């Protein structure tokens, strides 16, 4: 959107820049210089002619030059300084009103940048970031609503069915179990949202020294029942590694990565976890030979509420890996994903010891 600067004067402006003061100063300087120029270069003519006529000519010349230079200077100041600032001000008011489509155009045609051009660039970047935040907020609300709507509808539907007196006992139990599972899903969703919100605002971590390999073994044992349900073979190759970090936060990472590996690995397949101590870094790899991901899914896998399976056939709310990403960043580590469709996925977490 192009910003038009010819608008009604801002009512907050109750003072104007000292245009006449600037004009008179420039005009006076040019006047004196022009008068001196006339006297120097026309000394011989001044001796021969009527001094009053020469004075009048010199004064007229000086006045003309002073006026031209002053107006030219004022025009340059207006086009190069005042007008761009007016555009930025009008754009800022549009942004404050919720319009994030505004864009202040560059004033230079030579692609060079002065202080004003840098200010314009920074302003445009700020507007783009605000637009992104607004989009994320809208998506967040829409996704939360969607994720809550399904289990709530299930609870409402099955609770209504339970009101019927003629239901067999086994059918009643099935309905109750379904309501419990939907309630658990809602509880997990709310818990993850609260965790993520807390982590977004957290900057300080509680550091303690502990054995990372022991923590990984404990996480695997806690998920043993889920591995057995799908008859998944588990291969752990762990170096003994002592790390100074936040144990409770890293537990979120390992639980989510291992749960994801179980979820997307076919029955009877293999999940592998490795821990290596390399040059002062702890490197953890969680691999599966499941369905894998497309490139687009790999790029967006850490986004909030993003789910590669848009059909929602797999249980989840798209917050687990967003939590993982935030925890790893908070601790000062990195996480990358490598995946090939139909061949499996590997998450690699690198942490400072």
UniProtKB/TrEMBL annotation:
The chain crosses the membrane at residues 20-40, 52-73. Residues 143-353 form the Histidine kinase domain. Keywords: ATP-binding, Cell membrane, Kinase, Membrane, Nucleotide-binding, Phosphoprotein, Transferase, Transmembrane, Transmembrane helix, Two-component regulatory system. It comes from the Bacteria. The keyword Cytoplasm does not apply. Residues 79-135 form the HAMP domain. One of its GO terms (molecular function) is phosphorelay sensor kinase activity. It is a multi-pass membrane protein. The keyword RNA-binding does not apply. PROSITE patterns: HAMP, HIS_KIN. One of its GO terms (biological process) is osmosensory signaling via phosphorelay pathway. It catalyses: ATP + protein L-histidine = ADP + protein N-phospho-L-histidine. Pfam families: HAMP (PF00672), HATPase_c (PF02518), HisKA (PF00512). This is histidine kinase. It is found in: Cell membrane; Membrane raft. Gene3D superfamilies: 1.10.287.130, 6.10.340.10, Histidine kinase-like ATPase, C-terminal domain. GO terms for cellular component: membrane raft; plasma membrane. InterPro entries: BphY/WalK/GraS-like, HAMP_dom, HATPase_C_sf, HATPase_dom, His_kinase_dom, HisK_dim/P_dom, HisK_dim/P_sf, Sig_transdc_His_kin-like_C. Its main location: membrane. Its EC number is 2.7.13.3.
């Amino acid at each position: 959107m192009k910003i038009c600067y010819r608008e009604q004067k801002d009512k907050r402006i109750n003072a104007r820049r000292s245009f006449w003061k600037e004009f008179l100063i420039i005009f006076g300087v040019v006047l004196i210089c022009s008068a001196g120029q006339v006297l120097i270069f026309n000394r011989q003519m001044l001796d021969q002619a009527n001094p009053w006529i020469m004075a009048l000519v010199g004064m007229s010349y000086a006045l003309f030059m002073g006026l031209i230079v002053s107006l030219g200077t004022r025009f340059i100041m207006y086009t190069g300084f005042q007008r761009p600032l007016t555009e930025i001000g009008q754009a800022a008011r549009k942004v404050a009103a919720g319009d994030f489509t505004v864009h202040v155009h560059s004033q230079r045609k030579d692609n060079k940048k002065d202080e004003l051009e840098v200010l314009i660039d920074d302003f445009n970047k700020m507007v783009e970031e605000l637009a992104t935040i607004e989009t994320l907020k809208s998506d967040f609300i829409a996704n939360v609503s969607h994720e809550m709507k399904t289990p709530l509808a299930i609870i409402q539907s099955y609770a209504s069915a339970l009101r019927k007196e003629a239901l067999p006992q086994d059918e009643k139990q099935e309905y109750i179990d379904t309501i419990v599972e939907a309630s658990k899903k809602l509880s997990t969703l709310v818990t993850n949202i609260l965790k993520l919100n807390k982590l977004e605002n957290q900057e300080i971590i509680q550091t303690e020294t502990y054995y990372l390999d022991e923590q990984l073994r404990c996480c695997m044992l806690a998920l043993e029942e889920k591995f057995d349900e799908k008859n998944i073979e588990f291969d752990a190759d762990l170096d003994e590694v002592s790390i100074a970090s936040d144990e409770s936060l890293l537990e979120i990472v390992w639980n989510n990565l291992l749960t994801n590996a179980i979820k997307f690995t076919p029955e009877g397949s293999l999940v592998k976890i490795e821990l290596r101590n390399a040059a002062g870094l702890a490197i953890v790899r969680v691999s599966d030979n499941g369905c894998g991901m497309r490139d687009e899914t790999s790029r967006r896998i850490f986004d909030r509420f993003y789910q590669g399976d848009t059909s929602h056939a797999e249980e989840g709310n798209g917050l687990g890996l967003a939590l993982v990403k935030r925890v790893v960043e908070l601790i000062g580590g990195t996480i990358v994903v490598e995946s090939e469709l139909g061949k499996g996925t590997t998450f690699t977490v690198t942490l400072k010891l």
